[in-house]
Design goal:
Structural class: alpha+beta
Order of helices and strands: HEEEH
Largest sheet: 3 strands, antiparallel
Low-confidence stretches: 76-81
Helix content: 25-40%
Mean pLDDT: 84
Oligomer: single chain
Strand order of the largest sheet: 1-2-3
Number of strands: 3
Radius of gyration: 14 Å
Shape: globular
Distance between the termini: 44 Å
């Protein structure tokens, strides 16, 4: 896949599924992406909802990291000193 090509809503959900598979269940919440129009996505996770323009895979991963977050093992902090 061309890293700069815009993803479809279905492909965007697939990226989230890949991240969950890579980092384990619970690392990312389930994220739903729906195409509202050719130039707009509706993105839902937990109790949040946002609209955005379609993005490339790289842009989408960055968007997820900044807005949805991750609890991937390397980002977890323990309560132990």
């Amino acid at each position: 896949m061309d890293r700069q090509a815009k993803l479809t809503a279905e492909e965007a959900e697939g990226v989230v599924d890949q991240l969950i598979e890579q980092f384990g269940h619970g690392s990312y919440p389930k994220v739903s992406v729906a195409e509202v129009s050719p130039s707009k996505w509706r993105i839902q996770w937990r109790d949040m909802q946002m609209e955005s323009v379609p993005m490339s895979a790289k842009q989408w991963r960055n968007w997820l990291r900044k807005r949805v977050g991750s609890i991937a093992p390397e980002r977890l902090e323990t309560s132990e000193g």
